[in-house]
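Hello K.,

You asked for the raw outputs rather than the summary table, so here they are, unedited. I folded two proteins back to back in the same session to keep the settings identical. This is the first:
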Amino acid sequence: MKKYRTFLFFCISAFILAGCGKKERTDNAGESVWRMNSCFTETGILYKKSETNGKLKYYDYESKEYLTLCAKANCRHDSSECMSVYLYQNIDFIGKLGDKWYYRVMKTDESEGAFYSCDLDGGNEKEVGPFSHGNGKAIGTVNLFYDNVCVLETEDDYFDETTGEWTGTGSGIYRFHFDTGEAEVLCEEKEYMRPAYSVYGKYDNKLLYTEWDGKKNLLKQMDLGTKKSAVILDNINIITGAVQGNILLCSASEGERFKLIIVNLETGKQEHIWTKGVASDYFWDEELKVFIIYGEESAVTKDGYARQFFELYQYMEDGVCRLLRTGDTAKCFIPYVRMEDQLIGRDSEKGELARMNMQDFISGSADWEILEE
Protein backbone atom coordinates (compact mmCIF):
# COMPACT_ATOMS: atom_id res chain seq x y z
CA MET A 1 0.00 0.00 0.00
CA LYS A 2 1.25 3.43 -0.86
CA LYS A 3 1.89 5.61 2.16
CA TYR A 4 1.08 9.31 2.00
CA ARG A 5 2.31 11.96 4.38
CA THR A 6 1.50 15.62 3.92
CA PHE A 7 4.38 18.04 4.43
CA LEU A 8 4.09 21.75 3.64
CA PHE A 9 7.09 23.59 2.31
CA PHE A 10 7.53 27.32 2.15
CA CYS A 11 9.28 28.82 -0.88
CA ILE A 12 10.96 26.85 -3.65
CA SER A 13 14.09 27.81 -5.51
CA ALA A 14 16.62 26.70 -8.08
CA PHE A 15 19.75 25.07 -6.69
CA ILE A 16 22.03 22.20 -7.65
CA LEU A 17 23.01 19.44 -5.25
CA ALA A 18 24.51 16.17 -6.45
CA GLY A 19 24.38 13.33 -3.92
CA CYS A 20 26.05 9.98 -4.33
CA GLY A 21 25.78 8.64 -0.80
CA LYS A 22 28.49 6.88 1.16
CA LYS A 23 31.45 5.50 -0.77
CA GLU A 24 33.40 2.58 0.64
CA ARG A 25 36.74 1.50 -0.76
CA THR A 26 36.49 -1.77 -2.68
CA ASP A 27 38.62 -3.72 -5.14
CA ASN A 28 35.82 -3.43 -7.69
CA ALA A 29 36.26 0.01 -9.20
CA GLY A 30 34.62 -1.09 -12.44
CA GLU A 31 31.66 1.28 -12.56
CA SER A 32 31.27 5.04 -12.75
CA VAL A 33 28.58 7.65 -13.34
CA TRP A 34 28.76 10.96 -15.19
CA ARG A 35 26.51 13.74 -13.96
CA MET A 36 26.71 17.43 -13.17
CA ASN A 37 29.93 17.83 -15.20
CA SER A 38 31.69 15.33 -12.93
CA CYS A 39 32.53 11.63 -13.05
CA PHE A 40 31.90 9.71 -9.82
CA THR A 41 33.90 6.49 -9.39
CA GLU A 42 34.39 4.10 -6.49
CA THR A 43 37.78 5.65 -5.75
CA GLY A 44 37.39 9.36 -6.50
CA ILE A 45 35.84 12.25 -8.42
CA LEU A 46 36.89 13.61 -11.79
CA TYR A 47 35.58 17.12 -12.34
CA LYS A 48 35.89 20.04 -14.69
CA LYS A 49 38.11 22.61 -13.03
CA SER A 50 37.04 26.00 -14.41
CA GLU A 51 39.73 28.60 -14.84
CA THR A 52 41.42 30.50 -17.66
CA ASN A 53 42.56 27.22 -19.22
CA GLY A 54 40.07 24.73 -17.76
CA LYS A 55 41.24 21.18 -17.25
CA LEU A 56 40.09 17.83 -15.92
CA LYS A 57 41.27 16.92 -12.41
CA TYR A 58 40.79 13.64 -10.55
CA TYR A 59 40.64 13.62 -6.75
CA ASP A 60 41.53 10.26 -5.17
CA TYR A 61 39.70 9.53 -1.91
CA GLU A 62 42.40 7.32 -0.40
CA SER A 63 45.54 9.33 -1.20
CA LYS A 64 43.67 12.66 -0.85
CA GLU A 65 45.64 13.91 -3.85
CA TYR A 66 44.81 15.20 -7.32
CA LEU A 67 45.74 13.59 -10.62
CA THR A 68 45.89 15.66 -13.79
CA LEU A 69 44.98 13.62 -16.87
CA CYS A 70 48.24 14.32 -18.66
CA ALA A 71 51.16 11.95 -19.24
CA LYS A 72 53.53 14.57 -20.67
CA ALA A 73 56.67 15.22 -18.65
CA ASN A 74 57.08 18.81 -17.44
CA CYS A 75 53.72 19.88 -18.90
CA ARG A 76 52.41 23.19 -17.56
CA HIS A 77 48.75 22.13 -18.16
CA ASP A 78 47.92 25.54 -19.61
CA SER A 79 47.18 24.92 -23.30
CA SER A 80 45.36 22.48 -25.57
CA GLU A 81 48.68 20.66 -26.06
CA CYS A 82 48.01 19.27 -22.59
CA MET A 83 45.72 16.23 -22.64
CA SER A 84 43.83 17.44 -19.56
CA VAL A 85 43.07 20.81 -21.17
CA TYR A 86 42.26 19.18 -24.52
CA LEU A 87 39.72 16.88 -22.86
CA TYR A 88 38.15 19.78 -21.00
CA GLN A 89 37.66 21.64 -24.27
CA ASN A 90 36.57 18.81 -26.57
CA ILE A 91 34.57 16.14 -24.72
CA ASP A 92 31.02 16.25 -23.40
CA PHE A 93 31.34 13.42 -20.86
CA ILE A 94 33.79 10.85 -19.51
CA GLY A 95 33.70 7.66 -17.44
CA LYS A 96 36.14 5.26 -15.81
CA LEU A 97 36.16 1.49 -16.34
CA GLY A 98 39.03 -0.46 -14.83
CA ASP A 99 42.32 1.16 -15.84
CA LYS A 100 40.86 3.26 -18.69
CA TRP A 101 38.95 6.47 -19.20
CA TYR A 102 36.29 6.41 -21.92
CA TYR A 103 34.87 9.61 -23.39
CA ARG A 104 33.13 11.08 -26.41
CA VAL A 105 34.90 13.74 -28.45
CA MET A 106 32.28 16.17 -29.76
CA LYS A 107 31.45 16.86 -33.40
CA THR A 108 33.68 19.11 -35.47
CA ASP A 109 33.75 20.18 -39.11
CA GLU A 110 36.05 17.23 -39.76
CA SER A 111 34.42 14.57 -37.55
CA GLU A 112 30.93 13.44 -36.59
CA GLY A 113 32.06 12.56 -33.08
CA ALA A 114 33.43 9.32 -31.60
CA PHE A 115 34.21 7.45 -28.40
CA TYR A 116 37.86 7.33 -27.35
CA SER A 117 39.82 5.77 -24.51
CA CYS A 118 43.03 6.63 -22.70
CA ASP A 119 45.06 5.43 -19.72
CA LEU A 120 44.31 6.83 -16.27
CA ASP A 121 47.13 9.36 -16.64
CA GLY A 122 45.79 10.59 -19.99
CA GLY A 123 48.28 8.72 -22.18
CA ASN A 124 47.79 6.16 -24.94
CA GLU A 125 44.65 7.67 -26.49
CA LYS A 126 42.80 5.42 -28.96
CA GLU A 127 39.58 5.75 -30.95
CA VAL A 128 37.00 3.14 -29.91
CA GLY A 129 34.24 3.79 -32.42
CA PRO A 130 32.08 6.50 -34.06
CA PHE A 131 29.12 7.97 -32.19
CA SER A 132 27.47 11.04 -33.69
CA HIS A 133 24.69 11.69 -31.17
CA GLY A 134 24.99 14.56 -28.73
CA ASN A 135 25.00 14.02 -24.99
CA GLY A 136 21.66 14.38 -23.24
CA LYS A 137 21.02 17.32 -20.91
CA ALA A 138 17.59 16.41 -19.56
CA ILE A 139 17.03 17.27 -15.89
CA GLY A 140 18.50 14.56 -13.67
CA THR A 141 19.89 12.44 -16.49
CA VAL A 142 23.13 10.48 -15.99
CA ASN A 143 25.56 8.47 -18.12
CA LEU A 144 26.26 4.97 -16.79
CA PHE A 145 29.60 3.19 -17.30
CA TYR A 146 29.64 -0.52 -16.38
CA ASP A 147 30.49 -3.98 -17.83
CA ASN A 148 32.47 -2.42 -20.71
CA VAL A 149 29.50 -0.33 -21.91
CA CYS A 150 28.08 3.16 -21.57
CA VAL A 151 24.31 3.73 -21.32
CA LEU A 152 23.24 7.28 -22.08
CA GLU A 153 20.39 9.51 -23.16
CA THR A 154 21.16 11.46 -26.34
CA GLU A 155 19.89 14.72 -27.79
CA ASP A 156 20.23 16.09 -31.32
CA ASP A 157 18.74 19.41 -32.41
CA TYR A 158 16.96 19.63 -35.76
CA PHE A 159 16.74 22.75 -37.91
CA ASP A 160 14.70 23.78 -40.92
CA GLU A 161 16.95 23.55 -43.99
CA THR A 162 15.45 26.69 -45.52
CA THR A 163 15.01 29.06 -42.58
CA GLY A 164 17.59 27.59 -40.23
CA GLU A 165 15.05 27.70 -37.41
CA TRP A 166 15.14 25.06 -34.69
CA THR A 167 12.31 22.57 -35.20
CA GLY A 168 12.76 20.15 -32.31
CA THR A 169 14.98 17.73 -30.45
CA GLY A 170 15.49 14.08 -31.28
CA SER A 171 16.47 11.92 -28.32
CA GLY A 172 16.99 8.24 -27.61
CA ILE A 173 18.75 5.91 -25.18
CA TYR A 174 21.79 3.97 -26.41
CA ARG A 175 24.17 1.36 -25.05
CA PHE A 176 27.63 1.78 -26.52
CA HIS A 177 29.86 -1.32 -26.40
CA PHE A 178 33.54 -0.50 -25.90
CA ASP A 179 34.70 -3.99 -26.89
CA THR A 180 33.11 -3.82 -30.36
CA GLY A 181 32.87 -0.04 -30.87
CA GLU A 182 29.18 -0.36 -31.75
CA ALA A 183 26.09 1.45 -30.47
CA GLU A 184 22.94 -0.47 -29.56
CA VAL A 185 19.52 1.20 -29.43
CA LEU A 186 17.70 0.68 -26.13
CA CYS A 187 14.92 3.24 -26.72
CA GLU A 188 14.04 4.39 -30.22
CA GLU A 189 14.63 8.03 -31.03
CA LYS A 190 11.67 10.37 -30.67
CA GLU A 191 11.37 13.98 -31.77
CA TYR A 192 9.60 16.56 -29.62
CA MET A 193 10.14 20.17 -28.64
CA ARG A 194 11.90 18.78 -25.56
CA PRO A 195 13.98 15.69 -24.61
CA ALA A 196 11.92 12.49 -24.75
CA TYR A 197 13.99 10.55 -22.20
CA SER A 198 15.96 10.92 -18.98
CA VAL A 199 18.16 8.19 -17.46
CA TYR A 200 18.14 8.08 -13.64
CA GLY A 201 20.30 5.02 -12.99
CA LYS A 202 20.18 1.25 -12.74
CA TYR A 203 19.58 -1.35 -10.07
CA ASP A 204 19.96 -5.15 -10.33
CA ASN A 205 20.38 -4.96 -14.14
CA LYS A 206 17.25 -2.81 -14.44
CA LEU A 207 17.45 0.60 -16.08
CA LEU A 208 15.32 3.34 -14.47
CA TYR A 209 14.33 6.14 -16.84
CA THR A 210 11.49 8.37 -17.98
CA GLU A 211 9.83 8.54 -21.39
CA TRP A 212 7.72 11.43 -22.63
CA ASP A 213 4.44 10.25 -24.17
CA GLY A 214 3.38 13.66 -25.46
CA LYS A 215 1.60 14.64 -22.24
CA LYS A 216 3.72 13.46 -19.31
CA ASN A 217 6.99 11.81 -18.33
CA LEU A 218 6.29 8.17 -17.47
CA LEU A 219 8.69 6.37 -15.12
CA LYS A 220 9.79 3.10 -16.69
CA GLN A 221 12.01 0.15 -15.89
CA MET A 222 13.88 -1.86 -18.52
CA ASP A 223 15.46 -5.28 -18.14
CA LEU A 224 18.92 -4.66 -19.63
CA GLY A 225 19.16 -8.31 -20.64
CA THR A 226 15.90 -8.68 -22.57
CA LYS A 227 15.30 -4.95 -23.25
CA LYS A 228 11.68 -5.40 -22.14
CA SER A 229 10.28 -2.35 -20.34
CA ALA A 230 7.23 -1.45 -18.28
CA VAL A 231 5.74 1.61 -16.59
CA ILE A 232 6.25 1.36 -12.82
CA LEU A 233 4.31 4.43 -11.60
CA ASP A 234 1.06 4.61 -13.56
CA ASN A 235 -0.35 7.93 -14.73
CA ILE A 236 2.12 10.05 -12.76
CA ASN A 237 4.17 12.82 -14.40
CA ILE A 238 7.79 12.59 -13.24
CA ILE A 239 9.76 15.82 -13.14
CA THR A 240 13.18 14.61 -12.00
CA GLY A 241 14.72 11.67 -10.16
CA ALA A 242 17.79 9.75 -9.07
CA VAL A 243 18.83 6.24 -8.06
CA GLN A 244 20.77 6.22 -4.77
CA GLY A 245 21.83 2.65 -3.96
CA ASN A 246 18.61 0.61 -3.73
CA ILE A 247 16.45 3.74 -3.41
CA LEU A 248 14.72 5.56 -6.27
CA LEU A 249 13.78 9.16 -5.52
CA CYS A 250 11.69 11.27 -7.83
CA SER A 251 9.60 14.40 -7.81
CA ALA A 252 6.23 14.11 -9.51
CA SER A 253 3.17 16.19 -10.27
CA GLU A 254 -0.49 15.20 -10.22
CA GLY A 255 -2.56 18.03 -11.61
CA GLU A 256 -1.33 21.13 -9.79
CA ARG A 257 0.08 19.20 -6.82
CA PHE A 258 3.64 17.96 -6.30
CA LYS A 259 5.08 15.10 -4.31
CA LEU A 260 8.32 13.38 -3.48
CA ILE A 261 8.19 9.63 -4.17
CA ILE A 262 10.59 7.27 -2.39
CA VAL A 263 10.77 3.73 -3.77
CA ASN A 264 12.75 0.87 -2.24
CA LEU A 265 13.86 -0.98 -5.37
CA GLU A 266 14.60 -4.14 -3.38
CA THR A 267 11.26 -4.47 -1.59
CA GLY A 268 9.01 -2.38 -3.83
CA LYS A 269 7.78 -0.32 -0.86
CA GLN A 270 6.74 3.23 -1.76
CA GLU A 271 6.30 6.40 0.25
CA HIS A 272 4.69 9.52 -1.18
CA ILE A 273 5.18 12.90 0.51
CA TRP A 274 3.08 15.80 -0.74
CA THR A 275 5.00 19.03 -1.32
CA LYS A 276 4.22 22.53 -2.52
CA GLY A 277 6.93 22.42 -5.14
CA VAL A 278 9.53 20.32 -6.91
CA ALA A 279 11.90 18.31 -4.70
CA SER A 280 15.19 17.43 -6.34
CA ASP A 281 18.95 17.00 -6.06
CA TYR A 282 19.10 14.33 -3.41
CA PHE A 283 21.89 13.16 -1.11
CA TRP A 284 20.66 9.86 0.31
CA ASP A 285 22.40 7.19 2.35
CA GLU A 286 21.80 5.27 5.57
CA GLU A 287 22.83 8.16 7.82
CA LEU A 288 22.03 11.33 5.91
CA LYS A 289 19.00 11.97 3.69
CA VAL A 290 18.59 15.49 2.34
CA PHE A 291 16.95 17.17 -0.63
CA ILE A 292 16.27 20.63 -2.06
CA ILE A 293 13.03 22.42 -2.80
CA TYR A 294 13.24 24.36 -6.06
CA GLY A 295 11.70 27.79 -6.59
CA GLU A 296 11.87 30.94 -8.65
CA GLU A 297 13.20 33.47 -6.15
CA SER A 298 16.71 34.73 -6.89
CA ALA A 299 18.90 37.82 -6.66
CA VAL A 300 22.05 39.21 -8.27
CA THR A 301 25.18 40.20 -6.35
CA LYS A 302 27.07 43.47 -6.93
CA ASP A 303 29.55 41.66 -9.18
CA GLY A 304 26.75 40.23 -11.31
CA TYR A 305 26.77 36.73 -9.79
CA ALA A 306 23.29 35.15 -9.87
CA ARG A 307 22.21 33.95 -6.44
CA GLN A 308 19.51 31.31 -6.35
CA PHE A 309 17.79 30.75 -3.02
CA PHE A 310 17.07 27.29 -1.69
CA GLU A 311 15.68 25.40 1.27
CA LEU A 312 17.50 22.27 2.41
CA TYR A 313 15.46 19.56 4.12
CA GLN A 314 16.47 16.42 5.96
CA TYR A 315 14.24 13.36 5.72
CA MET A 316 13.90 11.63 9.10
CA GLU A 317 13.11 7.95 9.63
CA ASP A 318 9.62 8.74 10.98
CA GLY A 319 8.76 10.44 7.68
CA VAL A 320 9.11 13.99 8.99
CA CYS A 321 11.03 16.37 6.73
CA ARG A 322 13.02 18.83 8.86
CA LEU A 323 14.13 22.18 7.49
CA LEU A 324 17.88 22.34 7.96
CA ARG A 325 18.40 25.81 6.58
CA THR A 326 17.84 28.28 3.77
CA GLY A 327 20.60 29.79 1.71
CA ASP A 328 21.72 30.82 -1.74
CA THR A 329 24.20 29.55 -4.29
CA ALA A 330 26.47 32.59 -4.09
CA LYS A 331 28.38 30.72 -1.41
CA CYS A 332 27.43 27.28 -0.18
CA PHE A 333 28.78 23.75 0.21
CA ILE A 334 27.25 21.19 -2.17
CA PRO A 335 27.81 17.62 -0.85
CA TYR A 336 28.68 14.88 -3.33
CA VAL A 337 29.81 11.81 -1.36
CA ARG A 338 30.40 10.76 2.25
CA MET A 339 33.62 9.18 3.45
CA GLU A 340 33.01 8.05 7.05
CA ASP A 341 32.24 11.28 8.97
CA GLN A 342 33.40 13.60 6.15
CA LEU A 343 31.41 14.98 3.23
CA ILE A 344 33.24 15.72 -0.01
CA GLY A 345 31.59 18.23 -2.31
CA ARG A 346 32.01 21.52 -4.08
CA ASP A 347 32.35 25.12 -2.96
CA SER A 348 29.75 26.86 -5.15
CA GLU A 349 31.53 30.22 -5.15
CA LYS A 350 34.98 29.01 -6.21
CA GLY A 351 33.94 25.85 -8.05
CA GLU A 352 36.57 23.87 -6.12
CA LEU A 353 36.23 20.53 -4.38
CA ALA A 354 35.87 20.89 -0.63
CA ARG A 355 35.57 18.79 2.53
CA MET A 356 33.25 19.24 5.51
CA ASN A 357 32.38 17.32 8.67
CA MET A 358 28.91 15.78 8.28
CA GLN A 359 27.67 16.95 11.67
CA ASP A 360 28.88 20.48 10.91
CA PHE A 361 26.91 20.35 7.66
CA ILE A 362 23.75 19.24 9.47
CA SER A 363 24.16 21.93 12.13
CA GLY A 364 24.36 24.66 9.47
CA SER A 365 28.05 25.50 9.77
CA ALA A 366 29.74 27.41 6.95
CA ASP A 367 33.13 25.98 7.91
CA TRP A 368 34.39 23.83 5.07
CA GLU A 369 37.89 23.27 3.71
CA ILE A 370 38.94 23.68 0.08
CA LEU A 371 40.83 20.61 -1.14
CA GLU A 372 43.98 22.25 -2.43
CA GLU A 373 46.19 20.66 -5.09
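The second followed immediately with the same parameters:
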Amino acid sequence: MTLSAPIPLTDFSHRATAARALIHDMLTELFGIEPELTYEFYREWNGCWRARVVLSGAVTGRLEFTFMLTASGGLLAIPRPLPERWRNEIGIPASDGSRWTVNNDGQLVSFCD
Protein backbone atom coordinates (compact mmCIF):
# COMPACT_ATOMS: atom_id res chain seq x y z
CA MET A 1 0.00 0.00 0.00
CA THR A 2 1.42 3.39 -0.99
CA LEU A 3 0.95 6.11 1.60
CA SER A 4 0.59 9.80 0.80
CA ALA A 5 3.85 11.67 1.31
CA PRO A 6 4.17 13.60 4.57
CA ILE A 7 3.91 17.38 4.48
CA PRO A 8 6.02 19.96 6.37
CA LEU A 9 4.84 20.76 9.89
CA THR A 10 4.07 24.48 10.06
CA ASP A 11 2.01 24.58 13.29
CA PHE A 12 4.20 23.48 16.19
CA SER A 13 1.85 24.58 18.96
CA HIS A 14 1.38 21.88 21.62
CA ARG A 15 3.80 19.50 19.83
CA ALA A 16 7.11 20.06 21.65
CA THR A 17 6.53 17.26 24.16
CA ALA A 18 5.55 14.80 21.41
CA ALA A 19 8.55 15.90 19.31
CA ARG A 20 10.97 15.35 22.21
CA ALA A 21 9.50 11.91 22.93
CA LEU A 22 9.64 10.87 19.27
CA ILE A 23 13.28 11.90 18.86
CA HIS A 24 14.24 10.30 22.19
CA ASP A 25 12.57 7.01 21.20
CA MET A 26 14.15 7.07 17.73
CA LEU A 27 17.66 7.56 19.11
CA THR A 28 17.15 4.98 21.85
CA GLU A 29 16.14 2.46 19.16
CA LEU A 30 19.12 3.40 16.99
CA PHE A 31 21.79 3.26 19.72
CA GLY A 32 20.28 0.65 22.04
CA ILE A 33 20.72 2.95 25.06
CA GLU A 34 18.91 6.03 26.32
CA PRO A 35 20.90 9.06 25.20
CA GLU A 36 21.11 12.36 27.05
CA LEU A 37 19.60 14.99 24.74
CA THR A 38 19.40 18.78 24.53
CA TYR A 39 16.83 20.24 22.12
CA GLU A 40 16.62 23.57 20.31
CA PHE A 41 13.45 24.04 18.26
CA TYR A 42 13.29 26.69 15.55
CA ARG A 43 11.26 27.72 12.54
CA GLU A 44 12.84 27.93 9.09
CA TRP A 45 12.29 30.79 6.67
CA ASN A 46 9.72 28.66 4.79
CA GLY A 47 7.63 28.04 7.93
CA CYS A 48 8.74 24.45 8.54
CA TRP A 49 9.83 23.48 12.06
CA ARG A 50 13.19 21.90 12.86
CA ALA A 51 15.19 20.86 15.90
CA ARG A 52 18.88 20.83 16.69
CA VAL A 53 19.64 17.96 19.04
CA VAL A 54 22.90 17.52 20.93
CA LEU A 55 23.67 14.03 22.26
CA SER A 56 25.86 13.67 25.32
CA GLY A 57 26.83 10.91 27.71
CA ALA A 58 27.77 7.47 26.32
CA VAL A 59 26.86 8.62 22.78
CA THR A 60 27.89 12.07 21.63
CA GLY A 61 27.08 14.02 18.51
CA ARG A 62 24.67 16.42 16.92
CA LEU A 63 21.74 15.87 14.58
CA GLU A 64 19.14 18.15 13.07
CA PHE A 65 15.58 17.05 12.45
CA THR A 66 12.93 18.40 10.10
CA PHE A 67 9.34 17.85 11.28
CA MET A 68 6.65 16.56 8.95
CA LEU A 69 3.05 15.36 9.33
CA THR A 70 1.91 12.07 7.86
CA ALA A 71 -1.45 11.77 6.10
CA SER A 72 -2.96 10.30 9.28
CA GLY A 73 -1.65 13.17 11.43
CA GLY A 74 1.41 11.39 12.82
CA LEU A 75 4.53 13.36 13.65
CA LEU A 76 7.66 12.49 11.65
CA ALA A 77 11.13 13.78 12.54
CA ILE A 78 13.56 13.36 9.65
CA PRO A 79 17.18 13.37 10.82
CA ARG A 80 19.84 15.34 8.93
CA PRO A 81 22.16 13.72 8.09
CA LEU A 82 20.09 10.56 7.67
CA PRO A 83 21.85 7.54 9.25
CA GLU A 84 22.20 4.74 6.70
CA ARG A 85 20.65 2.26 9.13
CA TRP A 86 17.40 4.27 9.13
CA ARG A 87 17.50 4.69 5.37
CA ASN A 88 18.23 1.07 4.44
CA GLU A 89 17.35 -1.19 7.37
CA ILE A 90 14.65 0.11 9.71
CA GLY A 91 13.13 3.29 8.26
CA ILE A 92 12.36 6.52 10.10
CA PRO A 93 9.53 5.90 12.58
CA ALA A 94 6.57 8.29 12.81
CA SER A 95 4.33 8.66 15.85
CA ASP A 96 1.44 6.95 13.99
CA GLY A 97 3.46 3.72 13.54
CA SER A 98 4.35 4.28 9.89
CA ARG A 99 7.98 4.19 8.74
CA TRP A 100 9.59 6.33 6.07
CA THR A 101 12.83 6.54 4.12
CA VAL A 102 14.43 8.58 1.38
CA ASN A 103 14.78 6.85 -2.00
CA ASN A 104 17.67 7.20 -4.44
CA ASP A 105 15.96 10.22 -6.03
CA GLY A 106 15.84 12.01 -2.65
CA GLN A 107 12.07 11.60 -2.31
CA LEU A 108 10.44 10.73 1.02
CA VAL A 109 8.65 7.39 0.60
CA SER A 110 7.01 4.75 2.76
CA PHE A 111 9.63 2.29 4.06
CA CYS A 112 7.32 -0.61 3.18
CA ASP A 113 7.14 0.24 -0.57
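The chain has one domain: 7-110.

Happy to rerun anything if the numbers look odd on your end.

Regards,
P.
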